[in-house]
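User: I'm writing a tutorial on reading structure tokens. Could you give me a worked example: one chain, its sequence, then its tokens, then a sentence or two explaining what the tokens reveal?
Assistant: Sure. Here is the example chain.
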Amino acid sequence: MKVSTVQRLRDRGFDLSEAVPYASRWHVRCSQCEALVINGLACHETGCPNAHEYQTIRYDERED
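And here are its predicted structure tokens:
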């Protein structure tokens, strides 16, 4: 079964995300932070409780 883009965003912690009707666009939102999209990649603010642990690990590894 194919998973929708909105469902994938919600699985990543963007719980208020929604699709724009009749367009290939999405509003990316999080109830715990000011979510934003950088170069097409949805991002939480640092310390957001909705951000999954694997995302935090990936960001920490990039700093080394």
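What the tokens reveal: Residues 5-63 form one domain. The first helix runs from residue 5 to 11.
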